[in-house]
Description:
alpha/beta, Rossmann fold, 36% helix
Amino acid sequence: MNPRQPLSPAPRRHGAKRALAQAAAATAGLAALSFVIYLTANLKPTPNIQLHTEPDVPRLPDVVEGRGVGVFFLRPDADARDPRQPSDPDPVAGFVWQRNPPTTTRRVVLLVHGLDEPGGIWDQLAPALADAGFVVARFEYPNDQPIARSAAMLGIALRELAARGVAEVDLIGHSMGGLISYDAVTRPDFAPGLRPLRVARLITLGTPYAGSAWARHRWIAEWREQASRFVHHRNDEQGDTLPTEIKGAAGTDLLPGSAYLRELAERPRPSGLAHTAIVGRVFTSSGSLGPVSTLIVPANDMLGDGVVSVDSAKAFHIPDTVELNASHRGMLRTLVPGSDATPLAIPIVLDRLRQDGPATKPRQ
C-alpha cells in the first residue's frame, strides 16, 4: 500500500454503525427497564398471604453467634477494644458497637433500623444519645425476612435484656424498624413475658404504617446496602442465613394493603406506652400559592420524606406526631458533606427521652 494513499472511509463507516448499534441497545435496555418498573408499579399485593404472628424463631444465641445479629451496645472506643468480646467492625465517632453491655444498667435506649440499612443511619443519633448520658444499644436482624419474624426476634432480644437486669427500654425505630418495634410491643403475650422489664417509650421515624410504594423497587436500597457493606468491608450480611422461601418477604409486607399491615392496624393500641411519630417532608407545604397550592400540597403529601408518604407515616393517628422538613434518611443523617448541622429529628428524640426522666448512667 502506498503510504501516502488516504485510508478508505470504510472503517469510519463501520465505527459509526457500531456506535449506532450500541446506542440502540442502550435505548432498548432503558425501555425494558421502564416497562418493568411500570408493571411492578401496578402490581397488587397477593391477597392470600399467610401471616404468622408467632413464627418459629430459634433463640438468638443459636442463630447469630459470629453473624452480626443481635444486640450491640455503644461503648467508648478506647474502653471497648477487648479482643475477648466480639464487636462490630464500624466504630462511630469515637465509639464502637459491642455485644456485652459496659456494666449493669437499668435503662437502655434500643435502636431498630429499617429495610436494607447498611448501618450508618445511627452514626449521629447514637453518639448524641451517649453524650447525653443514655446507655445506647442497637438491634441487628435479618432484615429481608418477614417483619413478624423480626418482631419475634426483637421480643427475644428484649427478654435477654431483662435477664441481664435491664428494667426499662426505650425503642427507637427508623422506617421498617418502627413497624418491627410496634409489632413487638402490641403482641398479646408481650408484657407478661418481659416482666419486670418495661418498654416505656416508642419513637418511630419515617415509619410506613400504611406501607410504601417504594417497596416495589427495593432493589435500589438493596444495591445501596450491598455497596456500603463492600466499601466498609462488612461481611455480616444476615440475609445469607435465611431460608430461600422467606427471602424478600419484608418487601411484600411493606406493600400498601398487605395482609401484614392490615393485621397490625387492627391491633389495640398499647396502653401505658408513650408513642411519638416523627414524619418527614422533603418540601415544606405552603398555602400561600393560591390555587396552585391545591395541586402542590397533595403531591407534597404523597412524596412525604421521599420514601414514605405523609398519609402512611400518620396512618395510626398517633397524638404525639411531629412533622419535620427532612428526607427519609436526612432526618437522622447530615447528607451534605462537610456540614456540621444537626439533623432535625435528633433534638426531638432527646427531648422525648428526657420527658421520661434523666438519662441513667451505667452503674460503676
